[in-house]
Amino acid sequence: MTLPAEIVGTAGLEFFGRISASISHEIRNALAVINEHAGLLEDMTLMAEKGTPLDPGRLKRTAGAVLKQVQRVDGIVKTMNRFAHSVDEPLKRVDLADTVELIVRLFARFAAVRQVGLAPESPLTSVSVATRPFQLQNLIGLCLDYAMQSAGAGGTVKLSIAPLPEGGADIRFAGLPVSALTEKPLAGEVAQALLGATQAVVSIRTESGELDLRLPAKIAGGTGGKAET
Amino acid sequence: MRILLVDDEKEFVATLAERLGLRGITADWATTGEAALAKAAESDYDLAILDVKMPGISGLKLEKLMAQQHPRMKFIFLTGHGSVSDYHSGIAEDRVIDYLVKPVNIEALIAKMQAILKS
Predict the structure, then answer these.
(1) Which of A228, B30, B57, B84 sits CB 3.0–4.6 Å from B35 for a disulfide?
(2) How far apart are CA B72 and CA B75, in angstroms?
(3) Is A210 helix (H, G, I), strand (E, B) or coil?
(4) Above pLDDT 70, what percent of chain A?
(5) How confident is the model over B86-115, as a mean pLDDT?
């Protein structure tokens, strides 16, 4: 029998690998665009050496396109850096709005490939919880996978955060067709282990087409770190 | 030779097509599988260069659809996967296909295009 901690550890590595692969794919795409624009500049230079006049407007547009891709890569690397540091502290106080926004960025490519829109509420409600940040990101990722699968191509997953009176919050994944919702979402052993690790509860609201992830204000009896309060 | 480039990165395909044009190679481009199928229905292409991972119709699926309509058309795949070994283990494990890893060296691409069209 595999212990929940082992399941969480293995799932975490898989999650980290999946996100890292997606990020490297995105960086390669941006580099491919930069490569073509740089190649075009070289082509234009070679043509100029043979007497074809340089077009300043074309040069300016090409240089601008390169700068745009450099900014794109900078944004990707900043997101990657935030994600990488989420494993620094096993228990930590985090802002759910920041966490959801980060996961939405990390999942943008997955959503695009599935042709599903991701629409976080603007702005997301800021709620602070003491939790296991990396396991929480992994769990939100699983919820988002479920929501994107339910929404299907052409659908849009709307994300919001609803604070609870007793502390903690619900992360809501809405816009899901009722027909696609399962009675027991995230029933697999990985999801169950992550729900246990974060002391979260997941539920379906069929009347509104929502998946809700309920998170406590603070994990009780956590081990492996210290939760800030 | 007539080439069709398909990649959801518009700036990538448009610029690559322009650079191929400067080398005397006519290349049309599309950013979705649907648009590529429409172009292939209108024109006879010798070769299609397809991004493997695209929203909607993937490159591998697009190749099958195009090959049914145009049995003589040849294909090269482009991948953003990190390495050749990643690519073999992740996508093309069950078949032999011609592919290049992004970013693409245009001279290597042209050499591969010419070799495939001669084969």
Answers:
(1) B30
(2) 10
(3) strand
(4) 96
(5) 76
CB-based contact, A77 to chain B, within 8 Å: no
As beta bridge partners, residue B28 has: B4
Per-residue pLDDT band for A4 (boundaries 50, 70, 90) equals confident
Tell if the CB–CB gap between B15 and A24 is shorter than 8 Å: no
Domain ranges of chain A: 4-85, 89-215
The residues spanned by each domain of chain B are: 2-118
Beta strand pairing call for B26-30 and B47-51: unpaired
Q: Where residue A1 falls among pLDDT bands split at 50, 70, 90? A: low
- ipTM confidence: 0.88
**Inter-chain CB proximity B22 and A47 less than 8 Å:** yes
> Quick one: average pLDDT of A129-133?
96
Please tell me the CATH superfamily of domain A89-215, with its number. Histidine kinase-like ATPase, C-terminal domain (3.30.565.10)
Secondary structure in 3-state letters for A124-185: CCCCEEEECHHHHHHHHHHHHHHHHHHHCCCCEEEEEEEECCCCCEEEEEECCCHHHCCCCC
* The listed CATH number (1.10.8, 2.60.40, 1.10.287, 1.10.3470) that belongs to domain A4-85: 1.10.287
Q: Residue B15: which of A25, A36, A112 has the nearest Cβ?
A: A36
Q: Which CATH architecture has domain B2-118?
A: 3-Layer(aba) Sandwich (3.40)
Residue A5: what pLDDT?
86
